[in-house]
Design goal:
Elements lengths: L2 E7 L12 E10 L6 E9 L2 H13 L7 E2 L8 E9 L2 E10 L2 E9 L6 H19 L11
Antiparallel strand pairs: 1-2, 2-3, 3-7, 4-5, 5-6, 6-7
Length: 146
């Protein structure tokens, strides 16, 4: 972990009006020693499924499709989406999942041109499974496998 997890209560100051109903937002960054390799996790819990869905759609709308291409991953949660783009010295991919009243988003970067969809899928599935476990009233325990 390259920075401590950040958890805020309520609507974050830097969020658009689509964050109405946000109860909590949590972010954490994990990076390798190389500056372009690592993962960034974003999880946001809402008071209603409708508010979470609105935020998920708003986040998807911010993806610049002239820079990112759609990426195929197995369906997860209530709705999911994945995108990737090439960088000069690596690759960048993002996957988001809507799970009930929770929006999860993971950004995964490599410092090579070898970003496999299986790693992004594993990270996205871990977040979505943990969100579902929490909403089912059990302690989140899902992990990512590489």
């Amino acid at each position: 972990m390259t920075e401590a997890a950040k958890v805020t209560e309520g609507v974050p100051d830097d969020c658009s009006t689509a964050c109405e109903g946000a109860a909590f937002t949590a972010t954490v960054r994990y990076e390798n020693e190389r500056p372009l390799a690592g993962a960034f996790f974003y999880v946001q819990a809402y008071d209603t499924a409708a508010h979470a869905e609105r935020r998920f759609e708003d986040y998807r709308a911010t993806i610049d499709t002239s820079v990112y291409s759609s990426m195929s991953l197995p369906s997860m949660g209530d709705e999911s989406a994945a995108y990737r783009k090439g960088l000069v010295n690596g690759e960048h991919a993002e996957a988001g999942v809507l799970v009930g009243t929770v929006v999860t988003w993971v950004t995964y970067r490599t410092d090579s041109g070898e970003l496999g969809p299986s790693a992004l899928e594993s990270l996205a599935r871990m977040l979505s499974d943990r969100a579902q476990q929490a909403q089912n009233g059990t302690a989140p325990s899902a992990g990512a496998e590489f």
